[in-house]
Amino acid sequence: MPCHLHPTSSLYGMGYSSDYVVYHELIMTSKEFMQCVTSVEAEWLAELGPMFYSVKESIHSIEEGKIKAAERKKQMEDELKEAEAELEAARDREMAPSSVRSRIITPGHEPRTPRTPRSRPRRLGF
User: Fold this and answer.
1) Which CA distances in Å does 28 have to 33, 35, 38, 53?
2) Nearest-CA neighbor of 57 among 43, 71, 45?
3) Given CA atoms 17, 20, 24, 29 in this order, what sign does their dihedral have?
4) To 10 degrees, the CA torsion angle through 82, 83, 85, 86?
5) Are 23 and 36 contacting, i.e. CB atoms less than 8 angstroms apart?
6) Is there a contact between 11 and 21 (Cβ–Cβ < 8 Å)?
7) Would you state the pLDDT for residue 76?
8) Cα–chain-centroid distance for residue 70?
9) What is the rounded CA–CA span in Å between residue 126 and residue 69?
């Protein structure tokens, strides 16, 4: 419900309107007017009456919000570029020829050891 400052109020002629005010008296005419008005900070209300008031951090202007969003986007893009560079470096290390020769190892066989010749049993007689 809209409420206006009474013309006799000390805050009426200030040239700006406060975000938060505390008033003592309401005068009902064709409009509602606040009289005996004091300008207060939002933190004061939250500190003295936490069961009634809470303060949310907000962006003061749309331009500040756009600037912060652009900064966050640039930071995320930089992080993405760093991660891609690390991934590419890991791929290059993996694909680079190594000095150690890779071999296929089969279970039960020792590599590069001479095998024992198999001896066939001789048939007796027949």
Assistant:
1) 7, 11, 19, 26
2) 43
3) positive
4) 120
5) yes
6) yes
7) 96
8) 13
9) 95
> If you write DSSP's letter for every residue of 71-89 in order, what string do you get?
HHHHHHHHHHHHHHHHHHH
Q: For 23-45, write each residue's pLDDT tens digit.
A: 888 889 888 988 888 888 888 88
Q: Is the pLDDT of residue 93 over 70?
A: yes
What tokens appear for 64 in the block? 């500040």
Cα–Cα distance between 82 and 39 in angstroms, integer? 50
Query: Six-digit token pair at 3?
Result: 């409420």
Please give the share of the chain, as a percent, with pLDDT higher than 90.
17
> 48 by DSSP, 3-state: which?
helix
Mean pLDDT (the chain, rounded): 80
Using a cut of 0.70, tell me whether the model's pTM lies above it: no
